[in-house]
Amino acid sequence: MRNVSRWATSGGAVLLVAALLLFPSVAPNPYVLSAGIVVLNYAVLSTSWNFVGGFTGYISLGHGALAGLGGYATGLLVVKAGLSSFLALFAAAVLVGLVAVPVGFAALRVRGASFVIVSIAIVLILLLVFQSWASFTGGSRGLVVPRPFPDLSRPEHHRAFWYLYSGLLALALLAWWLVDRSRFGLGLKAVREDEDKAEALGTPTFAYKMIVFVVSAFFTALGGGLYALWFGDLDPVFQFSILSGSYLVLMALLGGVRNLFGPVVGAVVVGVALEYFKVSFGDTQLHLVATGVLLGLVVMFMPDGVLPALAALVKRLRPDDSATIREETAEELRDRRLANAGDKR
Amino acid sequence: MDGALLFQSVVLGLLLGGLYALLAAGLTLYFGIMRVVMIAHSAFLILAAYLAWWTHTELGIDPLLSMIVTVPLFFGAGVLLQRGLLSRLRPMTLTMMSVLLTFAIAVTIEGLLGYAFTGTQRRIQLGYGSASFGLFGARIAVVKLIAFGLAAVALGGLYLLMKRTRFGWALRATIQHQDAARLVGIDTARIAGYGFGLGLATAAVGGTALSLDTTIYPSLHWHWIGPLMAIIVVGGLGSVPGAAAAALILGLAQSVLQIPMGTTWAQTVFYLALFATLAFRPQGFFGGRLAQRF
Fold it and tell me: Which of A83, A341, B27, B265 is deepest in the core (most CB within 10 A)?
C-alpha cells in the first residue's frame, strides 16, 4: 500500500508538471488561458489552505480574505510605497504572515469552534475596513494595480503569469510534501486525530498550530498578491468574501485533504464548474445554490474527498493481497506474542 | 455629548440587545446540544423576515401573524435538520463538518431568497410604522418596542420551558451530560432534535421582529452572523445567561459608540470584544464548563 501511494504521488507529479508546461501551447485562445489562470490561482490557494485544514483538521473559512489582504497589500505597496511589483509581492506575503500571528494567537488557543468563528470574523472585519477606509484603500471604487510587465501584449501577459503561478504551485506543493514527511507534520496530524493525547505526549500543539497557520497565510498571501498583479483591479466585495473562502474549502475537501494533490484536483473540478456556471447562467443567485448544495453533498457523503474514494475503489478491484478478514482471538494473540518473545530471546 | 441623545442611544441599544439575546440563545442551544456552530441561524432569521414581509405584501395581514406559520415550520425544520443531517456526521469531526454543512445551508437559503424575491431591498410599510412616543426626551419607535417585546416574551418563554417543564429538564440534562442523561432514561436523540427545533424557532420570532423596522435583502445574514458569533464567544460558548448578558452589553456598546464613530465603525466593537475575549479569557466572560474546551 505504501508503494502504491508513492507511485501515485510521483505519477501525479509528472502528470501535473506536464499539464503545467503544455497548457499554454494547447489553449486555443487567451480566454481559455485566463480561465486556466483562475483555476491555477484556486489550486495555489486551496493547497495553501490545506496546510491548516489538511494537517490539523482546523477548518478556516477566512483564507479567501487572507488572499485578499495579500492582494491589497501588494497593490498598496506598489501604488503608495512605489515598490517594484515582485518585491511588493514578497513584502506583502511577509506582512500577512505577521498579521497571522496575533490572529492565530486568538484563534488557536482554544479548540475548533472558536477558530472557525475567528476565521469568519476576519473576513467581516477586513471587508468593513477596506470598504470604509476609502482614502487609503480606494474603498468600494476598488484599487487599480499597475501591471508588472507593461510592454507585454495581453496573451503574452497571461502566458507569463501562467508560468509564475505554476512555479508558486510547485513551491507550495513541495512545502506541503516536506511537512507531510517531517516530524513536525506528524505532530500536526496528531493534533488532528486527538489533540488532548498529542498534548499529553509532549507535542507542543499550540506552537505547531501557530507555525503552520503562519506558513499557510504566507502562501495564501503570495497567491492573492500574484492575482492582484495579474488581474490589476481589486474590489473589496470580491477580495474579502466568505464565499471565496468557502470555495477553497470545497475544493480541498472534494479532492481530499489528506492527499498532496487533493486540493489541485478539487480546484480543477470546482474551478472549471464555476467558470462554466458563470458562462452559462450569468450572474444569477443560482450559483450560490449550486455551491451550497455541492458543499453539503461533499460534507455528507464524501468527507474524505474523491481521491481517497478512487483509491478505495482501486484497492477493491485489485487482487486481494492482505492476509485474512478473520479476527484473532485473545488466545491466538497471546500465543503469537509468546512465539515472538521466544524469537527475540 | 448631549444627554438626551445619549439616553436615546442607550434605550435603542437595550432594545437591540434584546433581539441579539434571543438569537444568541438559539445559537447557544445548538452549541450546548451538539457542539455545533450553526452558521445558518442568521440565514433562517432573514428567511423568517422575508416570510413576514411576503405575508404583509401578498396577503395584506399584519406581519406578526406570519409567526403562526413560521414558528411551527421552523421548529419542524430544526428537528429535521438535526435528525436528518447533523446527527449523521461522523462524531470525530462533527464540530468542523457541521460548520461546513450549516454554511452550505446558509448559502443555499441566500441563493434561493435571491432567486425567489430578487436582490431588491424590501421593507414592510406598516400603519403604525412611524408611530413613536417620548420618554424623558428620547423618541422611541413603537415597532422597536414591539420587536423588543417579542424577543423578551420568547426569551422568557424559553427560560420557563427550560427551568419548569419535564422537557426542559431533559434538554438541560442532555446538554450537561449526554451519556448520563441516557442512563436515567432520557431519549437524548429525540430531545436533541427538539432542542434544535427550539433554537430555530427563536430565529422565526427574531426574523419577524427584525422585519418590522429593517430593510431586508438576501445577503443581510452576513451582517448578523458576525455579531452573533462574537456574542456567544464573549458570553462563553454554551451558556445561555452568558450569551444574554453579552448580547445586552455589546448591543448597548454598539448603539452608544454609533454617536462618535458612525454606524459602520461601531460594528467593530463586536470583533474587538471577540478578539479580546479569545486572547485574554478564552472561556468567555460569563462562561460555563463547556467553554474551556472549545
Answer: B27
Element (H, E) at B77: helix B67-80
Beta-bridge partners for A144:
A233
CB pairs under 8 A between A and B: 144
Cβ-contact B17, B246 below 8 angstroms:
no
pLDDT at A328: 64
What is the value of ipTM here, to two decimals? Answer: 0.86
Segment B33-41 mean pLDDT:
88
User: Computed from CA positions of residues A261, A264, A265, A266, in that sequence, does the dihedral angle turn out positive or negative?
Assistant: positive
Q: Do the Cβ atoms of A288 and B114 come within 8 Å? A: yes
* Closest CA in chain A for residue B270: A121
CATH topology of domain A26-315: ABC transporter involved in vitamin B12 uptake, BtuC (1.10.3470)
- Partners of B139 in beta bridges: B134
Q: Using 50, 70 and 90 to split pLDDT, how confident is the model at B288? A: low
CB A185 within 8 A of CB A55: yes
Q: Nearest-CA residue of chain B relative to A243?
A: B107
Mind giving me the DSSP string for B45-98?
Answer: HHHHHHHHHHIIIII-S-GGGGHHHHHHHHHHHHHHIIIIIGGGS-GGGHHHHH
Q: What is the pLDDT of residues B171-196, one digit of tens each?
A: 888 888 888 888 998 888 899 999 99
d(CA B141, CA A247): 42
**What pLDDT score does B3 carry?**
75
CA distance to partner chain B, nearest, from residue A288 (Å): 5
Q: Where are the domains of chain A?
A: 26-315
Mind telling me how many Å the CA of A54 is from chain B's nearest CA? 12
For helices B188-213 and B3-34, angle between their N-to-C axes, nearest 10 degrees: 160
Q: Locate the chain B residue with the closest alpha carbon to A131.
A: B264
More confident residue, A136 or A248: A248
Asked if B249 is an interface residue toward chain A (Cβ–Cβ < 8 A), one would say: no
The CATH topology of domain B3-293 is ABC transporter involved in vitamin B12 uptake, BtuC (1.10.3470)
Decide if A111 and B294 are in contact by the 8 Å CB cutoff. Answer: yes
Would you call B31 an interface residue with chain A, using a CB distance cutoff of 8 Å?
yes
**Whole-number percent of chain B with pLDDT over 70:** 95
How big is the CA angle at A25 (ends A21 and A27), to the nearest 5 degrees? 110
Q: What is the pLDDT of residue A209?
A: 93
Which of A63-77, A298-312, B208-222 is the least confident region? A298-312
Residue in A114, A131, A288 nearest the CB of B107: A288
The more confidently predicted of residues A110 and A344 is A110
Domain boundaries, chain B: 3-293
